[in-house]
Amino acid sequence: MRLVIDGIDLTTLAIPFYVLFMALELLSLRFFPDPVEQGYTVKDTATSLTMGIGSIVCNLGWGLVTVAAVAGVHALAPWHIASSLTGWLVLFVAYDFFYYWEHRANHRVRILWASHVVHHSSRHYNLSTALRQTWTGVGNTIFLLPLALVGFPSYMIFATAAMNLLYQFWIHTERIATMWRPIEFVMNTPSHHRVHHGSNQGYLDKNYGGVFIVFDRLFRSFEPEGEPVEYGLTKNIGTFNPLRVAAHEYAAIARDVRGAAGWRARFGYVLRGPGWSPASPVPATAVTV
């Protein structure tokens, strides 16, 4: 979603900083290489950047839908919360709580996964991976509505969303191993998020947090980094074509729905977990195509 606060497009404002830090990461890899790290490749990075630019353009429409929905629900709220330090702090934590469940749903509901899978499609892990974003993100709007319903105004919600998104940029790196123990316990860090991007069996569907990792600890989806991470999907798509990256899972859902025997199976292919089939009713782990 394009994040516009008081007429200022925060997504666009952040682009020079994204470029700067990617350049610094690239230079650090050049002068201080680590054979274990994946680093950058031209095709993969170009695809990630293309997906990021496409996300800004395509999500103009989705963003308008989201803004209208949040504003409409806020108008129905029984009370309105004014801007204050306490209000901002509560919202910052509350937003990450709902982000956790949004992110978890993106891995557990196939039609949502069809959008989110874009972000997991790279077999590399660097700052450019953070920019590999969906072109079809309207399904996540529903997770903002409870914040509006309890009285937080739209500008506070979208500003908090921007801060949450900006925080997540720097954790997409292999350059940082682990951090001070209290930070690792409370906050989402590069180590925790590498696990989330792993296709290793033990890493699937773990570490959903945005800024904080405490919700994963509370709801038993936390996994510490141990074995080397294999990035990407359990079945990689084998293409750098942005259109295929954006739409391949939607196409796979359409094929499964067309071939399904009965409406129960059709709904299952759309609303169950990725990898579900009538012959295997227990949903498979989420990072799959």
Instruction: Classify the secondary structure makeup into a structural class.
Output: mainly alpha
Main-sheet strand order equals: 1-2
Radius of gyration: 19 Å
Number of helices, where a helix is a run of at least 4 consecutive DSSP H or I residues: 11
Largest sheet: 2 strands, antiparallel
Q: What general form does the structure show?
A: globular
In percent, how much strand structure appears in the residues? under 5%
Mean pLDDT across all amino acids: 92
Return the domain count.
1
> How many beta-strand elements?
2
**Low-confidence blocks of residues:** 284-289
Topology as a string of helices (H) and strands (E): EEHHHHHHHHHHH
Helix content estimate: 40-55%
Protein name: Fatty acid hydroxylase
Domain Fatty acid hydroxylase: 88-220
GO molecular function: glyceryl-ether monooxygenase activity; iron ion binding
InterPro entries: Fatty_acid_hydroxylase, Sterol_desaturase/TMEM195
